[in-house]
Design a protein that fits this description.
Layout (H helix, E strand, L loop, with lengths): L3 E6 L14 H5 L8 H15 L4 E6 L8 H17 L4 E6 L6 H9 L2 E9 L3 H6 L6 H13 L3 E6 L8 H14 L3 E4 L3 E3 L3 H7 L8 H18 L2 E5 L5 H4 L3 E4 L5 H21 L5 E5 L4 H5 L4 H8 L4 E6 L7 E5 L4 E5 H4 L3
Parallel strand pairs: 1-2, 2-3, 3-4, 4-5, 5-6, 6-8, 10-11
Antiparallel strand pairs: 7-9, 10-12, 12-13
Helix pairs in contact: 6-7, 7-9, 9-11
Bound molecules: iron/sulfur cluster (SF4).
Length: 348
């Protein structure tokens, strides 16, 4: 059963840094104030009623949770203890910086019911990290992930391809290293130029060019494929379209309201090209895929089918078929069917 996450944005709270890309207030659309006990309980109660039987998780996003004073962390976590004990909520998740975690802190958080810690890694390349003003190196990120795992918690890593000095190879290497460090899941947030940030100043003075949408999709499809092959969940690609992001705060960069779908579509497109090239007998084809993947296979505004048509490949229909697994497609002409898998048949 899919979990429901009750989000609390504690933007910039606890954070002593100013990374070049960061405007937490624009990202979260919040005023950056910490919720008090009553606000926590009221919101959780509302979400609990609409969640029905689905498990409920409380998440503190943004900011640097573990850089808050311990007494403040405790104040945020204390109201959740009885909810955890009664089963009203099943887990608590926080996010923080790599250099704001040590074993004692992680153990203390575990004792407060925190089960998942997401680490803002962004890159594992020290030059990219320095140019981004992060104030820590890749080793700190690897150590933080390893520490979370050693304490028995679930570790997530947020990566930001496209920062100043980054390259597709560096982005892939960064993902490889967080996987090796033990990350259970990742989020991919291609770098965006947000108004009011240092990155915006660099962009306006033409000292920085972010990834375009097409470039970001190309990098992210390779990252996604690497994560899928490693069995690491990619739980989010691209920032969510919320008020803060749609009010003109994005000056440039790889952003689309359905970026994750665009990227999955690219993987299916590349797989279809392989399969249809092998079939290539001129007969209109039938494509079968998992029901949850029809939109990805067809592509945004039928992009994949249109691209196949331009290559002379006619698709008669796309059929939703529960017997086809989520990362596979089957392509049939008159007398022959070929099945392909993103996991087993795609290489970049
Ligand atoms: S550490 Fe996180 S919250 Fe702080 S400035 Fe950097 S990105 Fe923003």
């Amino acid at each position: 059963m899919k979990r429901v996450t009750v989000p609390f944005f504690i933007s910039h709270q606890g954070c002593p840094h100013t990374c070049v890309f960061c405007d937490q207030r624009a990202i979260s659309g919040s005023r950056g104030l910490l919720p008090d006990r009553n606000e926590l309980l009221v919101k959780i109660g509302q979400w609990s009623r609409s969640a029905g039987q689905r498990p409920l998780e409380v998440a503190f996003f943004g900011g640097t949770f573990t850089a808050l004073e311990r007494v403040v962390q405790q104040r945020l976590l204390a109201p959740l203890q009885s909810l955890l004990a009664s089963g009203t909520i099943s887990a608590v998740r926080i996010s923080t910086r790599p250099d704001a975690l040590d074993r004692e802190t992680v153990q203390w958080l575990a004792g407060q019911g925190v089960a998942v810690i997401e680490v803002g890694v962004q890159s594992m390349d020290n030059q990219v990290l320095a140019a981004a003003g992060r104030g820590h190196d890749g080793e700190a990120a690897a150590a933080a992930i390893a520490c979370i795992k050693a304490c028995g918690l679930t570790a997530g890593a947020q990566l930001m391809p496209g920062l100043p000095g980054d390259t597709p190879l560096k982005a892939l290497s960064s993902l490889q290293r967080v996987i090796e460090a033990g990350a259970d899941f990742v989020r991919l947030y291609p770098a965006l130029v947000l108004a009011g940030t240092e990155l915006a100043r660099l962009y306006v003075s033409e000292k920085y060019r972010p990834l375009s949408l097409d470039e970001g999709v190309t990098v992210c499809k390779q990252l996604l494929l690497m994560a899928l092959k490693a069995g690491v969940d990619v739980i989010r690609i691209g920032l969510q379209a919320d008020q803060g992001l749609t009010s003109g705060s994005i000056l440039a960069g790889c952003w689309h309201p359905a970026l994750g779908q665009l990227i999955y579509s690219e993987l299916f497109h590349d797989l279809l090209i392989q399969l249809t090239t092998e079939l290539s007998d001129g007969v209109p084809l039938t494509i079968r895929c998992h029901p949850g993947r029809v939109a990805d296979v067809v592509g945004h505004s039928r992009k994949n089918l249109n691209r196949l048509a331009r290559l002379g490949v006619a698709v008669k229909r796309v059929v939703a078929d529960k017997t086809v697994s989520s990362l596979e497609v089957e392509v049939c002409s008159l007398n022959k069917c070929l099945k392909g898998s993103i996991l087993n048949d795609l290489y970049y």
